[in-house]
Amino acid sequence: MTTAEDAAAMAQTVHIHPATLATPPMTTADAREIQQAAVDTATATYSAQGAIARWGDHEVAIAHQAIPALRWPPMTMTFALPDALASRPLAKGSAVNFSFRLQDGTYTVSDIQPVQP
Questions:
Q1: What is the pLDDT of residue 117?
Q2: What percent of the chain has pLDDT over 70?
Q3: Would the pLDDT of 1 be above 90?
Q4: Which are the contacts of 62, defined by CB distance < 8 A and separation ≥ 6?
Q5: Domains of the chain: which residue ranges?
Q6: What three-state secondary structure class fits 72?
Q7: In this model, does residue 18 exceed pLDDT 60?
Q8: pTM beyond 0.70, yes or no
Q9: Which domain of life is it from (predicted)?
Q10: Which residues of 4-13 are buried (b: 16+ CB within 10 A; e: fewer)?
Q11: What local confidence, expressed as pLDDT, does residue 84 receive?
């Protein structure tokens, strides 16, 4: 068998369409676009609304609404709290507006404000 025949036989064996094997290689421009998307996500600040589920010494769990920019559905999630915010606890069930960003691989609250009734 030739190399082309080997590739075709392998594609049939594992149910890969032969056209998939002809995918063009990634270009430098493609790699830059992917890297820029990673940088944009790492420096972005996101805002959301939710309710305090639990307040800890260095983290807060918030039942938040959907966050379309991240394609996140509504969920309860734990965020890291910087010391300046951790020292101002909010009661469980408090409605809040909050902002957060990805910092050192952890989603960290950068601002949190109770919603006034």
A1: 76
A2: 64
A3: no
A4: 48, 50, 51, 52, 53, 76, 77, 79, 96, 98
A5: 3-40, 45-114
A6: strand
A7: no
A8: no
A9: Bacteria
A10: eeeeeeeeee
A11: 93
Amino acid letter, 9: A
Burial of 98 (0-12, 13-18, 19+ CB in 10 A): buried
What are the Cα distances from residue 117, in Å, to 81, 96, 114?
24, 11, 9
- Fold (CATH) for 45-114: OB fold (Dihydrolipoamide Acetyltransferase, E2P) (2.40.50)
Q: Give the DSSP per-residue string, 12-70.
A: HHTT--GGGGGPPPPPHHHHHHHHHHHHHHHH-EEEEEEEEEEE-SSEEEEEE--BGGG
Output the CA angle 18-19-23, nearest 5 degrees: 120
DSSP 75-107: EEEEEE--HHHHTS---TT-EEEEEEEEETTEE
Measured between alpha carbons, how far is 71 from 16 in angstroms, rounded to an integer? 30
Residue type present at position 112: I
Gap between the Cα atoms of 111 and 88, Å rounded: 11
